[in-house]
Design a protein that fits this description.
With 138 residues, this protein is mainly α. Helices cover 71% and strands 0% of the residues. The N terminus is likely disordered.
Length: 138
Amino acid sequence: MLEPDGCGAGTTSRRTRCLPGGWLIEQHTLRTQRHLDQATDDAVRLKDLAVIGSAFTNIATIAAGQLLKREFPQGLPLDAEGNLASDASLRGKRYYRCFTMMRMLNRVFAAGSIGFTPRVNFNILRSYRPGTIFRLFT
């Protein structure tokens, strides 16, 4: 059964819940203490979009879990493979579809956030690289 507290097929992992908080701290450091070039700013903005998408899908999943808890106190009936049972109500099918879609979108956004990290980091290193004359003497 898909539990009414959100545990089960429609949940997001604790790691993806912490992702926006970690990025918010890193974002504050990048924006207040560093002067970045345009390519680095663009990479940071791209990662911002992925992190925001991850946060919104987490919030949507939590909200849908609360609604599910009200309407189905015992949770949704699932078969042995984790799919929705064939005798489920139309409302139950909608919740199951919502959880399935939010889980997929959350994974895409979280993977994008993690995948963009090397690009952001390499651009930051390139941004901090000293000028040509300094590199000649080191």
